[in-house]
histidine kinase (Haloarcula marismortui ATCC 33800), 780 residues
Amino acid sequence: MEDNSNMDRGGATAGESRSVYEAIFREMSDAAFLIDVEQSDEDYTFTYRRNNASHQEQSGLSEDELRGQTPQELLGDEQGTVVAGNYQECVEKGETIEYEEKLELPGGTSDWQTKLTPITDSGQVTQIVGVARDMTEKKEQERQLKRIHRRFETVMETMSAAVFLKDADDQYLMMNQACRELFNVEDQDIVGLTDEDLFPPDTAEQVRTDDRRVFENGEVIEIEETVPTTSGNTVRLTRKSPVYDEDSEVMALCGVSTDITERKQAERQLKENKERLTEQNTALESLAQIITDTERTVDQQITDLLDLGTTYLDLDVGILSEIDGSEYTVRNVLDPSKGITPGDSFDLTDTYCSLVYDADGPVSFHSATDGGVKDHPAYEKQGIESYIGVPVFVEDQRYGTLNFSRSESREEAITDAEESFVRIMAQWMGTELNRQQREEELERTSKFLQETQAVAKVGGWEVRLRSERMRWSEELYRIHGLPLDANPTPEEAIEFYHPDGRDTIREAFDRLTTEGEPYDLELRIVTADDEVRWVRTRGEPRYEDDEIVAVHGTFQDITERKEREQELQRQNSRLNEFASVVSHDLRNPLNVAQGRATILQQRANEELQEHFTPLVRSLDRMESIIEDTLTLARQGETVGGTDPISVVDLIGKCWAGVETGEATLEIEDEFTLRGDHDRLQHVFENLFRNAVEHGGEDVTVRVGRCGEDCLYVEDDGPGIPPSDRDAVLEPGHTSVSGGTGFGLTIVKRIAEAHGWEVAITDGRDGGARFEFDTAGLPDK
């Protein structure tokens, strides 16, 4: 195509053709341009002649800007040289060529698909017609698709789930890295592999059956399957989906398989925990019912507990023994074979209970091999395989053991929760035996006193109403501390009663003399020696002709019985403390269960959440049972009168009263405080004893002030972890073998009785520091 000024004007037909070409050049949507070619020797000069409107719009070059420019002049040396090379290739080949190029033009950087066609004259290329299409958007789409593809491949290869593609002939077309690792084919070409190449025949057949549902029905299926691998079987959750071709026919199957082995194990563990908690919850409910049933005797309750223990522990024989020296006597027993009966005696060394006494604590094993006791006489003579035994204490003295056993091994080891359950039963039995002994002793004493009164007419008295003359027996004078020649009147006799009960006896005596109403009262009197004693006073009328002429009765000194009752009340208080210990011992396994449940709940998916409602309900029920068994009213006591106390004198006395070994006491401040001297002595003695027990005999203990209203006691021992600081003040908490766990509880309660607050923190040398926030410590 030539410029109009050089066109041949020789004929109408040629002119018309040129007009057509000119119109096509000008109006075509593709970018078109014309290049003049000059050749000298082997060198070429390419000069742009013109471009159409589409080229001008897309390139940003007007025809005037283009005309007369060489590629280097128009596009720069580097880019222009490359473009000129393409032009030269077209000239030398003498034919149309196509290529893609990226050009930086005034209209911006664009991707072009360019087609060059040579125009010859007398066998020589004189011009080149170029037609270009802007491929920028298409190229960008291609680049975006490549980026997406690369990302998809990256995601596929980094997915933990195994992803695969199979055709209708059961041949694998693609596997991601996780899938290749699962099937151990990382170094193989997986295309063409079948399930028979990867699985045992039974597994491969099941896989094909599942696949046919996808290919034949177009189903999307989700299955749990066990996949054998070189490292063992894994449980997989596999989702298989159909892949369709353009004709909507299923051409392939895409599978995504996730390893749910840990989840299934967690489900099994959760189920086992739930079952175990249910069993423990049931056992605790039964225990609570047994020990709170007042209709049963202690022996009946113990027998029921032995039955409960054998059932809960899956053991055959339960025994409560009494041990005296080397003699082991069966007190209560549950033995289905009737081979052991109450009263049977054995040598202690022939029983596993000798191990309990040696350890001074629980001993348990689910098999003789596990317990290392195959050379023990109990195994050699009786063949006992499974055993758990704990010591039983009565009044802090070893009474015997509570033990359960059977001749066969248990499948599972005895757990901490089971051991704790047996310890709880043993503690209850020890406390009940102690109570029973006290009640029996009290009953014997009361009966003896009643018999003595009946035979000797102890404390008899009589008052004749007309003369108001009163007669006492000799025992009555002795009880009041009066000589036998004393002659008290009824009113004087009433004055011997303690002021708290004086109105009560006066009103009762008046009703007796006027209405004939008998009385039977237990009151206090104050003897002539100012001794307070408890008495039981009884009064009855004596009639003559339906008229009350005299009153008489008995007067019994019951001080000893009252003291025994008070001692029994103290025993009951210790039983209440025992309930708190029960609470503490049960809360340990309960907290473990709750912590495990929380961890599992956090890790579990939505499918597992439905299991947590009964699990949490079981835990809550267990906690309710614990609370129901508590009878200790947690109320601080108060103290009576308080006096100024020199802390230096008090501490010195307390330090001397505790076995401190090589320990050192440092008193850093001298001051006084107000309080109950005797009760505060218990505070410091327990703190000093606690420091020596936990810090060693060379521990250093310091006492001083840490504020106007605060004092402290600290040591340089191992200290108390923050997580344990609340627990150590509770009854029963101890980390020392043989400790009662009440020392720091005493400290807390006495402090609270003074209105003080107790806090545990770190000492300056890392040991334990007890700070007491008091009210109004005097200045130094």
In short: The radius of gyration is 52 Å. The first strand starts at residue 31 and ends at 40.
